[in-house]
Amino acid sequence: GRRVVWALGVGALVATALPVGRQITAEALHSFGNIARKNKDTKLGINLLRQANEIAPHDIEYANARIILVQKLAAPREIRPNKFAVIDKRDGRRLAKIALRAAAGAVKGPPNHPSAHALLTTAEHFAAPYFGRGLDRAALKSAKRAVELDPLMMFSAQQWRSASLVVGDRAEAVKAQALVERIQFLVENSKP
Length: 192
Known about the structure:
Helix content is 79%, strand content 0%.
């Protein structure tokens, strides 16, 4: 009787508290990681952001923070699309795996989230020099999926155009450019 009800209540509480506790922990790690980075404690910041992403791999914000850090490690002076610093191939592959893993976790998160697919596009572009041109084709597919999910997201439209040019698909690049221009037109004509 009562013990069964009590046991079910405790079970429900634990089942609810564990995921919430994990998310709170991840949020704290993410916040403290950003504070550490702002205070020039890069090593601690990177470690805390890594932990946040590993605790909550489906969180797009945490995955994005980790991928940005990986890109900065590969190109310490500045991040320029498709123009990453030349680093040791082994280190580059290690960083690329981290970026791909973080982006894959985000895509497995909220279903059909365009930002997750845009993040995957970024990671695939970054990883292509280390794992082969097939990732450039995968980046094109991811960019097109992001645009399909949100056809007014300028960043995804620009990624689609860029990915099309990287793989040499002129027809896709023309379609993507038309979308970029359409979004620009809508933005400019929606101002009061």
